[in-house]
Amino acid sequence: MKTRIGILGLGGVGGYFGGLLAKAYFESDVIEIVFIARGETQKAIAKNGLKIKTDTDEMTVFPSLVSDNPDEIGNLDYLICATKTYDIETSFESIKECISATTTILPLYNGVDATERIQVVFPKNTVLQGCVYIVSMIESPGIIKKVGSYEKLFFGSQTVSISRLNELQSIFENANIESYLVENIEETVWEKFIFISALASATSYLNENIGGVLNNPEYKEFYISLLNEITAVAVAKGLKLPNDIVAQTITKLEKSPKDNTSSMHRDLLAGHKTEANSLTKYVVNEGVKHGIATPVYQKILEKLS
């Protein structure tokens, strides 16, 4: 039987990495890639495939199936989730019957509480932890634009058998996905969260792109204040982070495209719903829980609310 992998959420993350999987396993005898999509995205991909554009080239890929019909999708061995954090619970409603007790779920969200939230919905399932570093976005339905060359996927679990994890890592490697199976996955996810939470909060509050934040001394200091607050929260939670995590995060930002911004800022500018609850409010709430003051995050939350 084929190993069946569903991709839920065909935005910048799910569309890009799902696209690499679809390209690698097109007409494969052992692996089937299913895009779970509806509306204009489903129509566009069914008709023209999924187009992925980078700085240097573009490609069009076709999954084994693109559908939102659970009868067509059938049972899944793996489900990779990459919707917005505010859609985590509702995104599963139409495909619950496609998820059996043996389905392994890999969340690739911006926040850090996805695994816990998904485990509540599917208490019997294996839910991994994961995160990605990539600058990518929807250009239009069925078209993903990736900016820059940086792309990394990290995943792991403290409870899942190493054979199951190695199987997924092999699937990624054969699709030329730069993926890393890491033992200390919670710390890795939090390192990404520190990066994206501070960036999303700062760019949204200041209405500036990355270059605008870095090139203005006052704005950069504002951003660093956010890094210090969220790092203090992480330490209070007992996470073992690098001693120079703030400096490392600043370096990551300095290596990012200066004319780009966070997805939350893009959503805010477009008048769309944002991930402020997962990226900003979560830090404030965890600070209260662990007795850590987060006044800069609180200021941003009040404005975004």
Automatic annotation (TrEMBL):
Belongs to the ketopantoate reductase family. GO terms for cellular component: cytoplasm. It is an enzyme of class 1 (oxidoreductase). GO terms for molecular function: 2-dehydropantoate 2-reductase activity. PANTHER family: 2-DEHYDROPANTOATE 2-REDUCTASE (PTHR21708:SF26), PROBABLE 2-DEHYDROPANTOATE 2-REDUCTASE (PTHR21708). Gene3D superfamilies: N-(1-d-carboxylethyl)-l-norvaline Dehydrogenase, domain 2, NAD(P)-binding Rossmann-like Domain. Its EC number is 1.1.1.169. Residues 184-303 form the Ketopantoate reductase C-terminal domain. GO terms for biological process: pantothenate biosynthetic process. It catalyses: (R)-pantoate + NADP(+) = 2-dehydropantoate + NADPH + H(+). Residues 5-156 form the Ketopantoate reductase N-terminal domain. Transmembrane segments: none annotated. Pathway: Cofactor biosynthesis; (R)-pantothenate biosynthesis; (R)-pantoate from 3-methyl-2-oxobutanoate: step 2/2. It comes from the Bacteria. Catalyzes the NADPH-dependent reduction of ketopantoate into pantoic acid. Keywords: NADP, Oxidoreductase, Pantothenate biosynthesis. This is 2-dehydropantoate 2-reductase.
